[in-house]
Design a protein that fits this description.
With 495 residues, this protein is α/β, with parallel strands linked by helices. The protein folds into 2 domains: 5-236, ATPase, nucleotide binding domain (Nucleotidyltransferase, domain 5, 2-Layer Sandwich), CATH 3.30.420.40; 247-432 and 468-495, ATPase, nucleotide binding domain (Nucleotidyltransferase, domain 5), CATH 3.30.420.40. It contains 19 helices and 21 strands. The chain has a 7-stranded mixed β-sheet, with helices on both faces. The protein has a 6-stranded mixed β-sheet with strand order 3-2-1-6-14-13, with helices on both faces. The chain has a two-stranded antiparallel ribbon with strand order 4-5. α10 (241-247) crosses α17 (436-448). It is globular.
Length: 495
């Protein structure tokens, strides 16, 4: 790297993890991936876990590679939301953390509502109720008198578990903490009263820190693997991967909506204050923390998970096709041949995604998609119809028109997805950066270490470092009829 400063981003996603190095020359970032590794659920006795020790080993390997040519100035870790680790009083891991797709939380929200009304829960947290949320994972542990809760001294969100192992104190970074549904959205503190009512011990929750907080140097045992020189500093970046991604969006303004497109799709707007109304709750919107005290008012939607799982199933069956080939087949498939609700419970974690999609179509009275291209087309059109509906909801709740949709993350590389999004929404789509999460991660490190003044300067630097693609909406298309069909499916009406 030729930059004046060097930053390392550890970016942990639900399907893979990466270690990236960014050189900073005073005007632009030069980002390079140095290590990639798989990630996913590990099933043991019917329970799904994360292999955090395996991830830690891969992170260490990646940090050693990132230090070739000189130690970095700092390191930041971001990860997916909601999941956590419990540690005992000696700082030891009590068990491998459970995966958010573990079935233990099925039905938990309805049982929790007998204690705390959904309106009250939303009024306190501002967070969309999803069974995967930390709140409900802890609630089922309290219900079952899980001995880990008694033994736990501290709860650490997944990215902060790794910053702790790097050498930091046990903390929770604010943007990641907002995904838990355990935080008071207005007070920006842990919702102790709410937690107590649900039997969750508030004593296990760690201190909160803002993104950009320098947590101290890497501990000696890790620094020894990183070559000579001063030990890198650990920075609490925007530790929720979506918060990092949204922080990296050039041109994000009140006229823009964002879509952070990956395994999940997070679609919303950046606001100064949360929107905590019963109308927002009924529409399924959540308020999560952003950089510089902002709120991401967004909806969590199924993303490319459906497509990823279809490809995984086909590979198991011996049909191993690259993404470009799959998308080319989808591009020439019949439009609107079949539509599903991508957020339907039966598509959350089926053992065979193509079979689950065909079954959902049969149940709703539609002809199941026949062939690889038709199934991928069904997934993508169903997803962008959800984008269209969410855009309409945003404009209604905010009382203003949104002029442009900005897509970041891996989905921004999917040209068919971006064009269909522009067509469905009737708005220009600006795509990029694809590496938004890593860019947001290193941008916060640059601010924390004094290389950049603020988020505005960081977004300008990112804009100077990348190329953006624009997709204009094409006229025509049966998007209105398609949206009506999808809404009917969500309401249980046969097509």
């Amino acid at each position: 790297m030729n930059g004046k400063s060097k930053f390392v981003a550890v970016d942990l996603g639900a399907s893979n993890g990466r270690v990236l190095v960014a050189g900073w020359d005073g005007a632009r970032f030069q980002l390079r991936e140095v290590h990639r590794f798989g990630n996913g659920p590990v099933e043991v006795l019917g329970r799904l876990h994360w292999d955090v020790l395996g991830l830690w080993s891969e992170i260490r390997n990646g940090l050693a590679r990132a230090s070739a040519g000189g130690r970095p100035a700092s390191i930041g870790v971001d990860a997916w939301g909601v999941d956590f680790a419990l540690l005992d009083s000696a700082g030891a891991l009590l068990s491998n953390p459970r995966h958010y797709r573990d079935p233990r939380t099925a039905g938990a929200p309805d049982r929790a509502y007998r204690i705390v009304a959904p309106e009250t829960l939303y009024a306190v947290t501002g967070v969309q109720t999803m069974a995967i949320n930390t709140l409900f994972q802890l609630f089922v542990m309290a219900e079952s008198r899980d001995p880990q809760l008694d033994a736990a001294a501290i709860l650490l969100p997944i990215p902060n578990l790794f910053s702790y192992w790097l050498g930091a104190e046990g903390i929770a970074e604010y943007t990641h903490a907002t995904t838990t549904q355990c935080l008071d959205a207005r007070a920006r503190t842990w919702a102790d009263d709410l937690l107590g009512r649900l039997g969750i011990p508030s004593r296990i929750f760690p201190p909160l820190v803002a993104p950009g907080t320098v947590l101290g140097p890497v501990r000696a045992g890790v620094a020894a693997d990183l070559g000579s020189g001063p030990p890198p500093r650990i920075v609490a970046v925007a530790c929720h991967d979506t918060a990092s991604a949204v922080g990296a969006i050039p041109g994000l303004d009140p006229a823009s909506a964002f879509i952070s497109s990956g395994t999940w799709s997070l679609m919303g707007v950046e606001l100064a204050v949360p929107v905590i109304t019963d109308e927002a709750r009924r529409a399924g919107f959540t308020n999560e923390g952003g950089l510089a005290g902002t709120t991401r008012f967004q909806k969590n939607l199924a993303g490319l998970w459906l497509v990823q799982e279809c490809r995984r199933q086909w590979r198991q069956e011996g049909l191993d096709r690259e993404w470009d080939e799959l998308l080319a087949l989808a591009a020439v498939a019949e439009p609107f041949g079949a539509i599903v609700d991508p957020d339907a419970p039966e598509l959350l974690a089926p053992p065979d995604m193509p079979a689950a999609i065909r079954a959902a179509c049969t149940r709703s009275g539609q002809r199941p998609p026949d062939g690889v291209g038709a199934i991928i087309r069904c997934c993508l059109e169903s997803l962008v119809l959800r984008y269209r509906a969410t855009l309409e909801d945003l404009e209604r709740l905010l009382g203003r028109r949104i002029e442009v949709v900005r897509v970041v993350g891996g989905g921004s590389r999917n040209r068919l997805l971006c064009q269909l999004t522009a067509d469905a929404c009737g708005r220009p789509v600006v795509a990029g950066p694809a590496e938004a999460t890593a860019m947001g991660n290193v941008m916060v490190q640059a601010i924390a270490t004094g290389e950049l003044d603020d988020v505005a300067a960081g977004r300008a630097a990112i804009a100077a470092s990348i190329d953006l693609d624009t997709y204009l909406p094409r006229p025509g298309g049966a998007w209105d009829a398609g949206l009506a069909r999808q809404r009917a499916l969500s309401e249980g009406v046969r097509a």
